[in-house]
Specification:
This protein has 3 helices and no strands. With about 70 residues, the protein is mainly α.
Length: about 70
């Protein structure tokens, strides 16, 4: 395990305290969940369709071709 020390503003710290109470967990659990959630977005961005996520027409065409070729 690695140790991490950070400084937070009072508002952020209060939110973290509330989250730990609500979810009955430690701060480290919240950070782990946040990192997992953020890296899932990176996986989608790096996936084949994710690379063209800003070009809806290309994605639509790719999906149409995939469905057409399945039959």
């Amino acid at each position: 395990m690695k140790k991490l020390e950070i400084e937070l503003d009072e508002t952020t710290y209060d939110k973290i305290e509330q989250l730990t109470k609500t979810h009955h967990c430690q701060v480290s659990d919240l950070i782990k969940a946040m990192v997992e959630q953020l890296t899932q977005a990176e996986i989608m961005k790096d996936s084949l369709i994710g690379k063209w996520s800003n070009d809806a027409e290309v994605v639509d065409q790719m999906i149409a071709e995939i469905l057409q070729n399945r039959t």
